[in-house]
Amino acid sequence: MMQQIQLFKKYMIKLGLLSAGALMLYGIALLLLPEYVIIDQALIIPYFIIVSGGVHYYLLKSRAQGNARKFVTRFMGTTTFKLLLYMATLLVYVLVFRDTALKFVIAFFIYYLMYTSFEVVVFLKQSKEVHSSH
C-alpha cells in the first residue's frame, strides 16, 4: 500500500508539471494566436487533471490487489469510461456552445493527446518499477 501512495505522489507531481506546460501552451497560444483561443479551453486542463488523477489512483489500487485478470478488466473499463466521458463532454459542449465548438474541440484533442500519451508512458514506467522491486 505504501508503494502505491509513493507512486501516486510521483504521478501527481509529474501530472502537475505536464499541466503547467499545458497552461504555458495555452498562454502562448493566447498571445500568438488569439483568434483561435477561447477562455473555455483553459478549463480543459483541470478537467484532465481530475480525470487522469482519479483513474490513475483507481488503477494503482486495483493493481495492488494482485489479481491480474481483475486489473486488466478494470484497466479496459476505465479506458472505455474515459473515452465515453470525453465524447459526452465534447457533445455537450458542441450542442451548448455552437459558435466556439470547433476551437474547443481542437484544443480538447490536443490536450487529449498530451495527457493520454503522458498517462501511458508513466503507467508503463511505474509498472516496470513495481515488477523490478518484487
Task: Please sum up the structure shown.
By secondary structure, the protein is mainly alpha-helical. 85% of the residues lie in helices and 0% in strands.
Give a written overview of the molecule.
The chain has one domain. The chain contains four helices and no strands. With 134 residues, it is mainly α.
Number of helices: 4
Give the overall shape: elongated
Mean pLDDT, all residues: 92
Order of helices and strands: HHHH
What is the strand and helix layout of this fold?
Blueprint: H1 2-32, H2 44-64, H3 68-96, H4 101-133
Key phrases:
4 helices; 134 residues; mainly alpha
